[in-house]
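Encode chain A's predicted structure.
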Amino acid sequence: MATEMPSGQVSDLDWLLSGLVQRVPYTRSAVLLSADGLVKSLHGMDADSADHMAALAAGLYSLGRSAGARFGDNGEVRQVVVELDSTLLFVATAGSGTCLAVLAGRNADAAVLGYEMTMLVKSVRPYLMTPTRQAAGVPGASGL
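Encoded structure for chain A:
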């Protein structure tokens, strides 16, 4: 999957991700992504790893949405947490059509990281939205 590094306001958000990683001890990297898995902004990992993380996070977010539809009274996904032996992965909604994925070491305080992610999203939510993609033209739809 190719990394989409957009121009304008979204790519200017790298410093926000950097600030999040620096504020929370043991946090390693953060990726802002569209809900369909395209990297919008990143800090702390190379582009290939960010692409992989974005695809993984989009899949986890999609599974969370499915769980909400089936078992959560159609509730929206707030956060998905994956706890590995040495790593914590957080995926949170960050605005319409946008997610924030953060990797941290096992020693990170999950409550503090979750709080800081929420505060970051709340402070800049309007700038984090990803517009819905328009369907490509269907052949023959224009009457040609």
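Helices lie at 14-23, 47-71, 110-128.
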